[in-house]
Amino acid sequence: MTKKTRRFNAFGKSILVLLLILGCSVVGFAAEVTFKGPYDDETVQQRDARMAWWREARFGLFIHWGVYAVPAGTHKGEQIENIGEWIMHYGQIPVAEYQQYAKQFNPEKYDPEAWVRMAKDAGMKYIVITAKHHDGFALFDTAASDWNIVEATPYGKDVLKPLAEAARKHGIKLGFYYSQAQDWIHPGGSTWEGRWDPAQEGSMDDYLRDIAVPQVRELFSNYGEVSILWWDTPIDMTPERAAMFDGLVDLQPGIIVNNRLLYGVDGDLRTPEQHIPATGLDYDWEACQTMNTTWGYKSYDDEWKSSEQLIRNLVDVASKGGNYLLNVGPMANGEIPQASIERLKDVGEWMRVNSASIHGTTASPFVRLKWGRATKKEYPNATELFLHVFDWPEDGLLVVDGLRGEVSGAYFMADFQQQIQIDKTQAGVVLQLPDRPLDEIDTVIVLKITGKLDVERILPGQGRDGVLVLAVNDANIHNPGYGGKLERRQDGNSASYLDGWTDYRSRVDWLVRIDKPGTFDVYAEVAAAEPAGFLLLANDGQKPLTVKSTGALQTFQSQRIGQLTLPEGESAIRIHPQESLWNPIMLRSVTLKPVGQSPP
Ligand code: GLC
After folding, report:
1. Is the CB of 479 under 6 A from ligand 1?
2. pTM beyond 0.85
């Protein structure tokens, strides 16, 4: 989702409710306008069986490919800002003018077999490709419109057919991304911020009936097994419009559908875009992410994430129980940018040794591990715990805080022979490791646990005086898909702090344990050039609070910002900036002191 569609999502449910109410008042009774998903009647067991391969896969390849790869971010000599596949929108390019680009879409170097092998070698288990993106261009042969690769380009061939064949041959599942609502070429397709060419005018219902529905039927009929349908940006979709696709999934029994057909409808999986959510989610989710900053190819986007970052992102996602859908944006000649190929090779090298710690694993049983992440595989009377060590302990002692129960063995994925000494302490299990990591990016250690897995939920708690310090190292950081990036930072020996809090949609929360409940004075160690207003939320309650200016964004100061009451047990404490009152701050810590104690 773009930043815009995300906003929609928040309103999605209320819009649906509003529609229902409107529907009720018009016809006088309820249930006229509800949308029934294709799998609403299935049992938990049926659903588990249908989702099984996807849950095991954990890692897939997203491919954004289309006519936008021709301008590659530049229209009429001007670099158009924002994501490459949106160039027609951001450049307000008229329909006929945009369609000229198709004449240069000639992917002679397209090698579907190599694409599939590249994904497979990286340890990916599935591919999702843009069959049609918002520019309405079909990468496949379609009778519904001549705006397709066969009729509108010099290449003249369907590219999905050979990809489907190669995927089948290599045992890789194939899914189609299909932009059902937005279509900037076909009359009646929806657009984000209004239309910019009279040629786009038309009825959305006609467009859905004549273009989108028949094309989805073609995709489900002509390419063998389709494993995923990835809907996107349901702008202007209504329950009735969503219902126009009813019955099509019967053509692909067992197909998995995402949550973007209609706002407020969950589908089989949720799709956090360009960010990795916090831990503890109890639904299926897939984080999709670009390697640079665009989905569709942009010739001058060199902001590549490092291979280390991508590997750790994959591990982070798996440790939280999600899938990672990592994108490439091939060029108009059919080549995948070298920078992407190299990164996937690096990921593949790591996966060759460590894939068992990703595929088929489930979320970490730990709330937090200071040195890295964990994944696990559970068996009837045993568990394999995969410890992903990002930060190698300087003293060679890896403390697995809170791990109780019987550890019957430990070994490195990269070297089964090397001994690891296991000790049990008050804190948990301690492993004696060699001086140097076996893999600088992520050394994986397997712990064999017999019997029931027993892990204590260790949360930051109060000191003896009842004081609770919320350190930035314990904070869960949530950033929006696009926009500011709030992050933890540490300069030299100074305390870490949160920096880059420019976007009001960036949020932070802490999970804490309270054993001496009561009312607390809240102090923040902050730096702020201007006052910044936010909501402090604890469990179900919320309070508007303000950080006062400290004179400059670099000047830290301890401020009392308000009061908070917390009950005994686990609490979630959240900071949500308020859009109209927010100004950037830097934050080192928040301290809660029982009322009556002197300030820190
Ligand atoms: C978005 C964008 C889009 C991209 C997609 C990927 O919603 O509109 O261009 O395809 O998300 O998640």
Report:
1. no
2. yes
